[in-house]
Design a protein that fits this description.
Length: 172
């Protein structure tokens, strides 16, 4: 039972929803409690990116935001990006490039990439690094993830070939 319950209403993955929450409950905790398990609890301090979701199109750390702050906002979780049967373009590149090991960081990486692709029309490495900064991967080593993302971004820019950033690494 939630002590001192409040309600919060926001659009979640395209559907207007109302949740019962506490004033001190983090958005991450509300999402996971409601079954959105793709958003991961990593550090609880906004430094690893495992809990990244989109709020009004911007990547945010859901472990730092109170659920009440989502009121009247548009929130997207990894569950809104592709499916097992039909993965998003970036998800497919991650699979094809064997860029996933444990997979714990991948939902946050994908959500940061979604924010990038929604906000920008061109993808120079410095801009891509800025969007992807703060997403930590402890087992893959970034190279394959970066390569998968670069292939998607190069196609979006119409280059069709791997861009100059293919061998660059994002900041860690």
């Amino acid at each position: 039972m939630i002590k001192h319950p409040h309600t919060v209403t926001f659009t979640l993955n395209g559907e207007l929803k109302t949740f019962i929450t506490r004033p001190d409950e983090k958005l991450l905790d509300l999402l996971r409690r409601e079954g959105y398990k793709g958003t991961k609890y990593g550090c609880g301090q906004g430094t690893c990116g495992a809990c990244t979701v989109l709020m009004d199109g911007r990547a945010i750390y859901s472990c730092l935001l109170f659920a009440m702050q989502a009121e009247n906002r548009d929130v997207r979780t990894i569950e809104s990006v592709g499916t097992h049967e039909k993965p998003s373009e970036f998800q497919q590149e991650l699979i094809d490039g064997a860029a996933v090991q444990c997979g714990f960081c991948i939902p946050g990486m994908i959500m940061s990439a979604e924010a990038l692709m929604q906000a920008e029309d061109t993808y120079p490495d410095d801009i891509v690094r800025e969007y992807m900064d703060g997403n930590l991967c402890r087992c893959t080593g970034y190279e394959k993830i970066w390569g998968a993302l670069r292939r998607v971004l190069d196609r979006k820019e119409g280059n069709g070939v791997q861009g100059s950033g293919a061998s660059s690494r994002p900041k860690s």
